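Reopening this one. Same input as before:
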Amino acid sequence: MAGVCYKAWVHELPSSTDVAIVGGGFAGAATAWALARKGVRDVVVLEREVELGRFASGRGAGLGRQITEDDDTTALTVRGASLLRELPGVWTQTGGLLGFDHEARAQDALARARRFGVAAEIIERDAVIDRWPELGALPIVHALWVPSDGAIDVAASLRALTASARIVLGAGVERLERGRVVTSRGAITAKVIVDATGAWAGTLVGDPALEAFKRHVYVIDAETAPETPWLWNLGDRELYVRRAPGGVLVSPCDATIVPAGAQEPDPSGDAKLHELLGNTGFSEAAIVRRWACQRTFTADRKMRLGRDPARPWLVWAVGLGGHGATAAPAVGERVADAVIEALA
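Same output, byte for byte:
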């Protein structure tokens, strides 16, 4: 998988800006987008790579999942999905299925959907297998059917969120100080700094790094009907599958703690995939393509969005925990509000 490559609007590092956003993934891109919508124009995105989305943001599966495991995240994913639908070419409504091995968990998910005004219903196992007959071996008892869920074109999303942004590529940030960002291309002064560095979050100011987990993703040689919704089995034998160009995209939902930036596929992912697909209709399907990405979490598993209490000039946009593709515009809105507060 590759990031989003295009001509940057800023070729030289400016000497100053009102807002410096460190990181050109979903969090940073969406913050720049939201600030522009709120009338804040003197903003620069600093990205150390030569393309956007080089790490987690450009390597995800693009599942537009609205109902998550908690209300805090669901508030962001539901709002984010509504905003993504307004961006041309980003969101395709496919519907989504969340599979559960206990009815109580399905009922919890349904209650959460109702609290957030998302149309959903519980369906029985047979209705799930009708859509994914190859996965009859999965221990799914009930599923939550969310018709408004979708698939996200990750590259199109990053392009749309940064369409009017000022971006400096190849500007690795080495240090953050009050009013100043030191990069590999020189220093830039800034009234407010946004840390949107994903798995590297905190390290630039001496805080402990967040936990980063590697997850493998595959495209296998298989076919599904065009109208097939994606399926995320959240019970035993967790995995997700969706229709994708060239086959079926599948992830074994593995989670291995790794250093920031460690995203090369390894044999453990293949082993986990074969274990989960054993006894299914996909057990003999050849792997067409494989890659790995990272999901980054805070200690309490909640996104860290807003001003740092000890550093009023620093705003956090980190710990998206694998929900960045769907939540990004809402994350951007919340972080932009904190930036505007810091500028006042």
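So the earlier flakiness isn't reproducible anymore. For the record, Residues 324-343 form the longest helix (20 residues).
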